[in-house]
Amino acid sequence: MKAFILAAGLGTRLRPLTDTLPKAMAPVAPDLPLLEHHIQHLKAFGIREFVINLHHLPEKITGHFGDGSRLGVAIEYSDETAGLLDTAGAIRKAAPLLGDEFLLVYGDQLHFEDIGALIEVYRRSGASAALLVKRSDNPANGDVVELAQESGGRIVQWHARPHAIADLSGRLYLNAGVYVLSSGVVSRIPSGRPVSLDREVLPAMLAEGALLHAVPAAGDILDIGTPDKLAYAQAWFARHPARQRRALFLDRDGVIIHALPRGEYLTDWSQSSLVDGIQSLVSSARSAGYLTVVVTNQPQVSRGLLSEEKLRSIHDRMADALDRQVDAIYYCPHTDSDCCDCRKPKDGMLVRGSRDFSIALDRSIFVGDSDRDVTAGSSAGCRTVFVRNEFNAAEGARCSPAFVVNHLTEILELL
Ligand SMILES: [Mg+2]
Ligand SMILES: [Zn+2]
Prior knowledge:
Oligomer: single chain
CATH superfamily of the largest domain: Spore Coat Polysaccharide Biosynthesis Protein SpsA, Chain A
Strand order of the largest sheet: 16-15-14-17-18-19
Largest sheet: 6 strands, parallel
Helix content: 25-40%
Number of domains: 2
CATH class of the largest domain: Alpha Beta
CATH topology of the largest domain: Spore Coat Polysaccharide Biosynthesis Protein SpsA, Chain A
Bound molecules: magnesium ion, zinc ion
């Protein structure tokens, strides 16, 4: 199934941003235009072919995406530079590119909805159209649909705007503007003029007895049409669980490099040796989409035995030894008596990493070789792995790690 993304809107309320960008190219994150988010999101549901309509500053879109091969998809464009045609008019114009059934998405909305479920409802119901619906505190700006059942299903009434419905509850929902449409809808669109899909075509089809199905949206569907709404959408996007990454947190001594006997500490990289299996663990974690983050207590710094400069140069050599596949190294320079938030068993370094890199701690793993590690990892909400070695026989049992391993390669199956 192809997806048709409507990207022709002028976005006048988003000026001055839209003086130089089409609205659908507004950034939802640094270096991520909303339109690119749509493509990435839909790609996860197996959609590989896209059609995008163009009106305002078309070269900003074609120049960014080209034929789509950079993103692993195929993109065709429908040229609306001669004049805007509204939703259904745009569909009519793009129809030769769209196929018998297609997904229709507004390029100026932001969401992470389960498009696979919507396509499934469309197929199973045999409806002419299936669409997402949502609740809203402000239904006046949208089209209200009345469903046969509160949980979703057949649409029995369509109240196109303007309407007097002020409260959405029970079987009343707002049309959310995400559709799977059949060629039966396309054939109902008059040509040669702007036509609205949700104010003209779909209400008329419903009145004539066509089967239209609705699915309540699982999450928020945000509009980015004003500077305030865009700022809200950007903050929501940054916090969204789907955007959060997983991390493999690694203790340093005893996990990445062999621990020295108690009382000894590393003052030069030449004294160290990598633990067997660490390189393959780090590269497998990265391939599986994990960030790799080192969190290490280095109280020698606070005691004046090791300068931060020296420590950082040791860490630089360690990153080299791991083929630069380490995303961050956090160290606590303090001793217990400094009462800081970062020294393990406190979870401060993990919390800081989660903030710096948008890491979902509950989907992350912490590998350590001491009770301090396991306690820090558990208190941050990570899955904890205790690595046994020659120095830590007395530890590990007291703090109940989720997993105990004798060799780092055993961690591969947890990724
Ligand atoms: Mg250790
Ligand atoms: Zn500290």
